Give the backbone structure.
Amino acid sequence: MVNAQNVLVGAPDQKTTGAILSAVLETELPTSPLETPDPAFQSSGYISESGLTATPERSTSSIKDWSGAIIRQLLEEFNGTLAWEHLETNKQSLATYFGDDNVTVASATAETGEQMTAVLGAFELPRKSWLFRIKDGKKRVLIKVPDGQVTEQGEVSFIKTGAILWPVTLTTYPDSEGNNIYIITDDGEFAA
């Protein structure tokens, strides 16, 4: 039976923080979309209108019988990635793009405003725990990544006619249960 109430949109759930949050690896993750995350989770601010894209990738190999017919597929590799573009240029969005240890902030002085310095180089970015918060009216979606690492930094354009975007791709790694990504929904309809 079809039900239009089960059609969800992917709007960000950002009451007081952004919809994408990260914290040091192994920070306790919420179990429900309605649960308040651990304060260690830091928001990276606004995300571009392109939103969030989750991409599961599987590669398999075939087992064939004597006649050459495929009789089974074996999973060789799985990779789950999430991608987005930071719309806001702040310490946390730059730390996501450049790496936490590669962004420094100098407080404002009598001669200068607050200054951020970010560096690019041949170094790995940190592995962290991630939360992605989505809403549709009373309905909520929580995407949890217990262990994820930014492995791709997209091209950044500095143009007069548009915002500076900081595009990233997050590679996910399996947790102790063997899972890379958790997607939890709440329909917003509470029992009486």
The first strand starts at residue 11 and ends at 12. The mean pLDDT is 93.
